[in-house]
Amino acid sequence: MEAAEAGALMTEPVLTVEPSAEIAEVAAAMRAQAINSIVVIDDDCRPIGILTSTDFVGVVADGDLDSTVGDHMTDGVVTTSPAASVEEVARLMVDHDISHVPVVENEEAVGLVSATDLTGHAAGTAVADAE
Fold this sequence. Notes:
This protein has seven helices and six strands; from the N terminus they run αβαββααβαββαα. By secondary structure, it is α+β, with helices and mostly antiparallel strands. It has one domain (6-130): CBS-domain (Roll). The strands form two sheets. It has a four-stranded mixed beta sheet. It has a two-stranded antiparallel sheet with strand order 5-6.
């Protein structure tokens, strides 16, 4: 397996929303685009949180479909840079028990690396090639 950087594996562009976005609308957008996570940004487009399909299990279990993204996002989001090695990104996922890491450049989210992206890299195929 050849060495790679996060920038080569990341999905881009990354779907972003503000914390005030309605949870039901975001769920519909994620479903329509077949994605499992969305980066939550502030007014300056800096990542402040992440909302994943796992978070939606809690939303549904709590019957909280009239809420906002900010009510359910994970804040203190763990990020990486486009130049980070695949090993560094994998270590972040293991250390923080997460499966999605936003890629940030100049304080803005420019992409997202998922556990699926890492698995595709380990298997020697791009995720897009496998679909």
